[in-house]
Amino acid sequence: MSANCCCCSNHLNDDRYTRLNQVIAEYKNQPGSLIPVLHKTQQIFGYLPDDVQKLIAEGLNVPLSDVYGVITFYSLFSLEPRGKHTIGICMGTACYVRGASQVLDALKKDLAIEAGQTSGDGVFTLTITRCLGACAMAPVMMIDEDVYGRLTPDKIPDILAKYRQASKNA
Ligand code: FES
Q1: Which domain holds residue 42?
Q2: Which residue's CA lies nearest to atom 1 of ligand 1?
Q3: Is the pLDDT of residue 108 over 50?
Q4: Sheet holding 141-143: strands in order across?
């Protein structure tokens, strides 16, 4: 099967698959191309569904099991649709001893989800991270590229409200 083959008719009208094929063509035959291709593909789709994994495996001529293995090894890759914003709450030692669990509980309660899930309104995906390198500000979380330190559970509702409001206005 050709890398550019698009055998599912649903894909024909979906610009994302065209862009995926362009990414595959750009990186084809380049050593070490799997991770950058997965990264760009996740930017296109928001996550890495099964059919997309197959197209990447065929296009780059790597086993599907390798594609799946890399996706599940790196936490930045996701098999599920992600929210508009990704929250990463640090559970490293410094954050943990300064109350990160209570902050995580506040996030779970506010979002009505568990870690690894996406909120019902599609705005947030909640993840747990290792040390973010900002231990002096523990407990720390990131929302996308924004860093929040010295967190307490009572600060969570206002922080989340800011992103909810922004996503309504977008
Ligand atoms: S342990 Fe959380 S930032 Fe280092």
Answers
A1: 9-73
A2: 92
A3: yes
A4: 124-129, 85-90, 141-143, 146-148
